[in-house]
Amino acid sequence: MPRPSCPRCQRPESHCLCPLIPHLASRTRVLLLQHPSEVGHALNTARLAALGLANAELRVGERFDDLDALLADGACRPCLLFPGEGARPLAEVAAADPRPLLLVVPDGTWRKARKLLHVNPELAALPRVTLPEGRVSRYRLRKAPMPGALSTLEAVVAALEIAESPTRFDALLRPFEALIQGQIEAMGEETFRRNHDKAERPG
To answer: Where does 23-131+148-196 sit in CATH, by number?
Structure first.
């Protein structure tokens, strides 16, 4: 029989993260587009971001037929948080115009995220922004797939702190840290050390 789960954070009731999830305001609007394969992932960090931000929305799917409507916000400047040719530093884009950003964030493995861009041409057409190099993920369960790879939640926090400096958004990371620590304790220190040496995916 499955354990009862919290309907909000979707964690087992005995490990509910809701008391740790903040409710933060932001000028930046965040649109999280999650590949369906991520929904059941233990570290569903896009969901944590959506729950913790008042001005965030989480959509799940591969093809988003209403994407034009989602992006049609004249008060905000849409941009895609994803590396690629022509991507500009987020700080540079944020400083170029006083209007707030609409930050579109694909959520999935690198392969799945690229697929989202492929099947949604509206995404591929957006101006791309990137974070500064050299950031280190707090995702300690497995090794990052490449230098500077962050979980979706970590990337959103970093992006907001750049776009809305000096406002801090690191309170969003509290449930993320608790989730990771709980999984490390559940698997045991020896298993954690063994798994930590294996290759990994972004979250």
So the answer is: 3.40.1280
